[in-house]
């Protein structure tokens, strides 16, 4: 018996098949692009997601696909797919890095239990209502990305609390906030009913099964957002368990059995289980480093790592990584980045090293906000494709002042999605969570570094000085 996890990410779709014990035995992926046809926009046509799924599925071993009995879903959070009554997308999907709605956030009452960001479904849909009125009239459903994909596969039209509570249109529990939706001028009928992430939401249709090479009738789980799926796949189940993920963005997640108290700049969302998590969400991690690598003309990441960590850290060159605004803890969609303190003698290695430090310091800002809320965090699990280099891991440990334990699970969100497929089928139950946790290895122990602390202080000071420039 096998279970398939589908992780619909920002820049790629990933598939993982796990066995009865939760071990990953097959993996594939397919990339697509994020369109930025106007400044501040971030979109992807949904056909690219479907084509990526078909391509990635074709690369999985046929015998493993044959054994799949349950499918779970993980998806990039906050964005939205606007569809007609048949589930056909009326426009490209609008994604979480999108900032076009940044001037519409004052429509939300203050304070909110969770921060509101421009790339959340609520602000994006309000932008649609004001700027694309014909689509506003024609639309029937406003879906989260993973929910659109599940319905494309034949699943029921529903969503889960982990995605709903991050739309800026629901209560922290995930229940739709009918009064807020009405106040914003959005149709309440757009928003699907709720079901737990581990619930059954239909079965794989015959047409979809032919397209991806699986059997028709396979159980489909509702699924969850990618961050709660990564937490599940990484083995977070006890109160206070903490995870750092580094990918396109970065997240620091701390599990909680009870609803966390609201804190400015931090999020408190529902997990893929019936628990909660506190989160600091930073937008500019892999996306900023990848931009810098391109600007500095490094043809491959190994050379970028080599030059960056061979360079002596500069005490005066600071990189602010806020290329697309920032969420935690600043909640400043207008923030922008760049190097400060450059001199004629600085090399591209110096600039690349400053970029790594700037991203680490931005993660530290999020973690410090969580610590200020009362959490005592000295150890964290580490996941995400952006944290595989040992020198980068060590810098993260030093900057964050935490011991990092790498999760033996390179595709945590995809594995978490697959586990949800097993829960939906009844193969696993809540009592199995601890035994399903993947093993970890000590990745880095923090070193005391006074010069790094001084550069961190300079980073925070410089952000404070320039934050109102844009």
TrEMBL record:
Keywords: Kinase, Transferase. SUPFAM superfamilies: Actin-like ATPase domain. Residues 244-424 form the Carbohydrate kinase FGGY C-terminal domain. Residues 4-233 form the Carbohydrate kinase FGGY N-terminal domain. The keyword Disulfide bond does not apply. One of its GO terms (biological process) is carbohydrate metabolic process. InterPro entries: ATPase_NBD (IPR043129), Carb_kinase_FGGY (IPR000577), FGGY_C (IPR018485), FGGY_Carb_Kinase (IPR050406), FGGY_N (IPR018484). The keyword Transferase applies. Pfam families: FGGY_C, FGGY_N. CDD domains: ASKHA_NBD_FGGY_EcXK-like. GO terms for molecular function: kinase activity. Signal peptide: none annotated. Belongs to the FGGY kinase family. This is Xylulokinase. It comes from Caballeronia choica.
